[in-house]
Amino acid sequence: MVHQRSHSTSSVSEKGASFSTPQANRKNKVNGSRRMSDSNNVAYSNGKKAFEGNIEKWEPNVYEKELLRRTWSDEFDNLYELGSAIYCYIFDHNPNCKQLFPFISKYQGDEWKESKEFRSQALKFVQTLAQVVKNIYHMERTESFLYTVGHKHVKFADRGFKHEYWDIFQDAMEFALEHRLSLMTDLDDNQKKDAVTVWRTLALYTTVHMRNGFIDGLKGVNRFPPLV
Question: Any idea where the Globin domain is (predicted)?
């Protein structure tokens, strides 16, 4: 079972995939602008406009919340496959990220994909996404949660973690989620397109707040200190 899952996720993370935003347009993420490849005035199939403005203050509308809940699954296999696809994409497109995970060096070739350490790491990342989806009706909770996750990543700075690595994490989330949506049979084409749009927004929202926490952590600043 594990071997089959690893094989399927490796096929997802093919190089040369198209991004929702040109790689040269990375400054849009830093200043919090919403990234879309086609237009900043995206409308859903029901005629309602997608979010515009400061992504840090994103509040999904009723339709967006419905799509997120409908297209998310907390089942173990789905979480593992999504997490695996995200990390395989990251390692394929930025092999330097492997140095952040010393356990990889213990294995020959791609044997790390079968390791318990990789399974654990893959699940950790998607559990962060699961927490965001869980709180889409209480968005005031997600900012501090994601900021804290990013803040904790400061401990990986000595392994070479850089704030621009959040870019590849975002691209990986978008690519893996879009692939997953394409396989759903209970959505029509318009719903799939709308779901891709809202998941891209959530991916950006997630990485922007984690990036903010990481950068503040490097400065020794914490906007959301733990309660004593």
Answer: 59-192
